[in-house]
Specification:
The chain is mainly α. The protein is built from 6 helices and no strands.
């Protein structure tokens, strides 16, 4: 809401944006660059591909970061298990390998 007030525009809510992206791109699994290139200009936003140092800097500056990575089926099972059982903790490589 404060975003709407600052820019005095009728900006869709986070939930509306999320639902639009899911409805329009649900079958574009793994095509993050394509989705970002089509969606971000609608909000006058941009993105940069960065390394770990760049991500840390962006987070320190309060900027959002999106991370993508690939896992095999076993890795995804471990990932979701970790997220469910260790809320608030930092996922590390050792959590996916064990």
């Amino acid at each position: 809401m404060s975003f709407n007030k600052i820019f005095d525009k009728n900006i869709p809510s986070f939930e509306d944006n999320r639902n639009d992206i899911i409805n329009n791109y649900n079958e574009c699994k793994g095509k993050i660059k394509k989705i970002l290139n089509e969606v971000l200009p609608n909000y006058k936003l941009s993105y940069n591909k960065i390394d770990e140092k760049g991500a840390k800097y962006a987070i320190q500056k309060g900027r959002p970061c999106h991370f993508s990575f690939l896992l095999n089926k076993r890795g995804w099972v471990k990932f979701f298990y970790f997220c469910e059982k260790h809320k608030g903790e930092i996922l590390q490589k050792k959590n996916l390998i064990m």
